[in-house]
């Protein structure tokens, strides 16, 4: 750039005519005036080239030289130098990069799902011109939500609430024929109305939950820990048991009468009383 | 004359060596607290000496000679005696060594004695202390220890179906499209925090829960901040936490700041970090017969039994307990390792100590079991 500033003062002998609307990855030409041999310089994002040219003829710019969108500087020197700037725009979108956050979300939460889409051309230049992007959420082939958005400075985004049913949700961003899919896992929320039943067996007390659901009726994820606590004359016994197929079970070794309570995370359930071993 | 000085030096050295042996042997018969390790004397003519001989040989892993100090009426055999000291099934005792011991008599008569011995082990998880009461009897002119036969859980041969969940991780490669394989870190939350001054320094403790539907590897850090907003010290929960939390599981944590006092602390900055981790919902370990009792020294001890409800050996069980006051506030967090492996369908006793300063406030408690198994991270 220092060289360009110097040229602005000293290099006025030749004239350059640069393209008004160059597109990334497409060939272009630069016209020159004058006669005789000269040296041509092209400086731009990711490119720096020097070639010998003949003044008065057009200087071809290869598609390879203009792969990256951005500001370019062309300089011609023959005794004195002259220069001109031109801008190379991104080509038409050829891919769309799509980010969705979070990847897992509890059901029934307000404004927790967000997505951002970036259109890029085939040379990975961000397309800054306004584009129409459509966002769509689908679950089990049913459309839950859709929203058209125009990109601003190469970005389109949305924010929405999670649904009421647990399960995978496909989030699609579409721009013309281009689509990008992400999967968002909607999971059950905290257990609701946690209830247990228990009975004495030869090995102790077998206690189990009713099917564990959240308040929207979704089955709470398998593997979720349910803590059973038995309190009796012998002391306290606790078992952290994982939910399996919607139900958590535990065997508690308590020969005497015991009061058994249940909790999962910060959610408490009911308490039952089981009599002593006969 | 030129030989006089060397001769005197040799004579004095020899005299001191003999005196040293004599003094050490004498210390064995003093009644009171004795410290290991004493030199072995062939003839144990006192309970102290018999115990010192036995434990000294255990320290040196001279099993034949150590077992010779055990009465034949004990009912144990040498392999069982060795296993008692060396551990088995990859237990913590297997990786430990006896560094020293203190003993004191509880009562002594002409023919029998009861000695309380504090055994100091060095282990991969730090020094551990085990207190045992050892009964000794006089057999002729020699005192010997009555060594109880170690009760090894006997589980009948059986097939235990394991059908609990397991979570594996698949990570994307560098060539994957940007954003195509983003999986969020688990969502965990600190549900309580309490900072207190203790005899060893400032302590920050509380509980943290995994609110997500996938397992989490959790670490909790705390930074003490002074009135000017400058950090004084930063520490992590290290092993005073169950690092792998299954969905909705709650673990206590404790962060120690040795030699620091809270009087200069204006604020405590908490930081909980969680990452995805492969995990299994097996084994399930029940904590039975939990009760707080006072031991012979008046200390409050939380006792209980760990019951392995699965078919997998847990090599090193680790118990972490949070203690609550009447308002449900966490007033202390204690932990302890069990030095015997927890075999399938078997139970092992555990005990963790409650400091005297908080034992009066304890209203309830919650115990979680951390487990380390060989071959698993």
Q: If you had to describe this structure to a student in words, what would you say it looks like?
A:
Chain A is mainly beta and 278 residues long. Chain A has 1 helix and 25 strands. In chain A, 3% of the residues lie in helices and 56% in strands. In chain A, the strands form 7 sheets. Chain A has a 5-stranded mixed β-sheet with strand order 2-8-7-4-5. In chain A, strands 10-16-15-12-13 form a 5-stranded mixed β-sheet, with no helix packed on it. The longest helix of chain A is centred in the first third of the chain and has 9 residues, at 2-10. The radius of gyration of chain A is 34 Å and the shape is rod-shaped. Chain B is mainly beta and 377 residues long. In chain B, 15% of the residues lie in helices and 42% in strands. Chain B has helices spanning 4-27, 47-59, 63-68, 78-86, 356-359, and strands at residues 34-35, 97-108, 112-123, 126-139, 142-146, 166-167, 188-198, 201-210, 216-225, 231-236, 244-245, 250-258, 267-276, 279-280, 285-294, 300-308, 316-324, 330-337, 347-354, 364-372. Chain B is globular, with a radius of gyration of 26 Å. The A-B interface holds A 97-104, 182, 187-188, 190-191, 221-227, 234-242, 244, 250-254, 264-266 and B 163-165, 167, 177-180, 182-184, 191, 209-215, 246-250, 281, 284-291, 303-304, 307, 309, 347, 365-369.
